[in-house]
Amino acid sequence: MSQSLQFMTPSRAPYFTLPKFPRISCTRFPVINLPNTKRSIIITPSLSSFLHATSSRSLPSGNAQTGAAGVVSALSVGATGIEVDAVTEAELKENGFRSTRRTKLICTIGPATCGFEQLEALAVGGMNVARINMCHGSREWHQTMIERVRRLNDEKGFAVAIMMDTEGSEIHMGDLGGAASAKTEDGEIWTFSVRAFGTPRPERTINVNYDGFAEDVKVGDELLVDGGMVRFEVTEKIGPDVKCRCTDPGLLLPQANLTLWRNGSLVSERNAMLPTISSKDWLDIDFGIAEGVDFIAISFVKSAEVINHLKSYIAARACGSEIAVIAKMESVDSLKNLEEIIQASDGAMVARGDLGAQIPLEQVPSAQQKIVQLCRQLNKPVIVASQLLESMIEYPTATRAEVADVSEAVRQRADALMLSGESAMGQYPEKALAVLRSVSVRIEKWWREEKCHEAMELLDVGTLFADSISEEICNSAAKMANNLEADALFVYTKTGHMASLLSRCRPDCPIFAFTTTTSVRRRLNLQWGLIPFRLSFSDDMDANLNKTFSLLKARGMIKSGDLVIAVSDMLQSIQVMNVP
Fold it and tell me: Where is 145: in which H helix or E strand?
């Protein structure tokens, strides 16, 4: 038997329907005050008894429940009427609702993981989003990767989304003459030049993409490569060439970012004059739109205007398809305009490598936490990236410090964690992914066992009255799910908005997000706690629930007696029921 809740306001009609309970004076009804609002949910006598029956999680039996079971048994919809990720389905069958991982995992695709079998291994291992980095490889290579991921989804039943990451126009190195990497040694002299070299290029020589590089640097400046993974000191300038002595040796990678420090301060004047989106980036963005990627990540975002301009451009050229824009927080300018950038974007990435090259290292942890919390407040998915398991590029086991770093990102309730070089060029990409997965599951389980419900007060993000109602419904549904120890939250959404509002609440139970389109399903795969399904449904919530129960039971993903709380963006309501 389902139970429904009804919003009442002093001057408006009811916003959603109730079963026909006996009419009793409202003063005799218990009332739940909704957070951050003066509105309340009125509880009917039968639902009130249910809410207070904490010792039992089964709803009272009755004719309505028998009738629902009859409807379910009469349905003839086959198990093929619903699409769900194959790995998630297996996890639910084997380990139950509480075992599902909530934190999403992103893998950068590179030479170590570009084969179809390797991509499948990552998907089986828990990859939710495949990232292609436009700093490396040709568009033809990236097109092949996109085709392979799409084929993987079609043939193997996955819903792996694709994120395209732009190069950005900041100062960076060129390639390494075809080499995948180059090692530096302490005291070696390297030449950084704006000249174009033939093949073979002189030994220990690196191209720089910025024509004014030799003019801007001064002898004595410190040159940081890839966020400080390698450091040089400028010793001499000879025309277009800059001679540098290696002071902190390490591994040089193609297209690595370069930052200059002078007298302990970042030299950022020239970077500030460069456009956020370069001419190459615009061509890559056109490529991403044509290929129908799910996300485009923009590097070195300085202001909200850049995001708004790009979203308008995508809307004009994407022919109705939606591509989410992710703002990468990796510069001092992005921190100065943090809230407006996040508000304008569809999500954010804490790119800690480049960010750590522009602010003191000791400030990176607090910047990360600030970005994660602000994204949560503004209902934007947030990704923690860069150097999560850097040692696993070369070694099969993560350091204990890296595991602690990953666990902190999970504890902060970030939506997703991202592997970069670990999966793109590392020797142990599958093992690195397994570490992220196991640490995420363990910390999430600890969080639930310790009842670590954070006291974060979620701010209102809706501007319209209907949006405010959706927020209050999701906040209340998540709170009810925790208090009643529900097995799952169901949300029926065509746009994904209601699902994201539920994800924002970070409930204890998993969120089954049912949507009608494949593209929305893939985009939801980035957000915390969401298990996205593709399912055709109507505006009739009872029919939707009965159909869903039938399909999921047929696949062994739920069982009779499971407690479900359901919401929908078609009919703004909360329904509480046991699976028939």
Answer: helix 139-156
